[in-house]
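Severity: low
Component: inverse-folding endpoint
Summary: output formatting inconsistent between runs
Steps to reproduce: submit the following structure tokens with default settings.
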């Protein structure tokens, strides 16, 4: 469920988040869980040659791709590290973002504490996470669609509803919330949705674990592939600020 940003709605929310972060020339911008470096060029364009962009991830394959993608951008530095122990000097970051990472970590509050530690007074921080309780998949067998969403929320994703909690967690971490927004990616192509939402994979797991009846589950999934297809869910974004004091 990490390829949410692949569709038009996903790209739009990324642009909106970076716009709201108001990244300026000469600043230091941090992307926690940067993955293959998708957002690093946009951040580099904003900070310019006098600024710096730090991309942090712990996956060697993602780090290699991020380095390849930003090889011609001297202001970008890729660092291997964990979100709960950021390889960044305290009080050195002007802008930070973390996008669809908190839903996977054991202690989201620890990650936000790290962001509070490494940012300067007055820094802006952008957080984006899904709320998988909002996942809807159209099918004549509505009960199985609901069972699939329940399985996704309860078993497939560690912190499946963290999107709705972002503002509360940000305040607890010492930030002031400035903006809360919601985006709804819509999927009308079955193959794209299957790849992004794990429809087939998680249906098989739900059947194996006894959460969906095998006959109904296989019939449900086969019906989805016949189309017309529709699915959607909600992404929640929060932009917050570290106090000037």
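Observed output (run 2 of 3):
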């Amino acid at each position: 469920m990490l390829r949410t940003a692949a569709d038009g709605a996903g790209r739009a929310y990324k642009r909106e988040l970076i716009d709201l972060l108001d990244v300026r020339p000469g600043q230091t911008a941090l992307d926690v869980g940067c993955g293959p470096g998708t957002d690093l060029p946009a951040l580099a364009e904003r900070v310019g040659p006098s600024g710096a962009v730090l991309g942090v991830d712990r996956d060697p394959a993602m780090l290699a791709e991020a380095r390849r993608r930003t090889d011609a951008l001297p202001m970008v530095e890729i660092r291997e590290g964990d979100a709960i122990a950021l390889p960044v000097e305290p009080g050195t970051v002007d802008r930070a973002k973390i996008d669809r990472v908190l839903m996977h970590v054991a202690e989201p509050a620890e990650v936000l504490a790290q962001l509070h530690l490494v940012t300067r007074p007055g820094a802006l921080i952008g957080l984006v996470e899904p709320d998988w309780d909002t996942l809807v998949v159209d099918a004549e067998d509505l009960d199985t669609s609901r069972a699939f969403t329940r399985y996704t929320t309860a078993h497939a994703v560690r912190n499946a509803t963290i999107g709705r909690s972002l503002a509360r967690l940000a305040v607890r971490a010492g930030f002031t919330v400035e903006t809360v927004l919601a985006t709804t990616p819509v999927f009308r192509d079955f193959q794209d949705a299957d790849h992004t939402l794990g429809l087939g994979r998680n249906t098989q797991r739900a059947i194996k674990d006894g959460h969906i009846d095998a006959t109904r589950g296989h019939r449900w999934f086969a019906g989805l592939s016949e189309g017309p297809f529709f699915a959607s869910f909600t992404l929640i974004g929060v932009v917050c600020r570290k106090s000037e004091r």
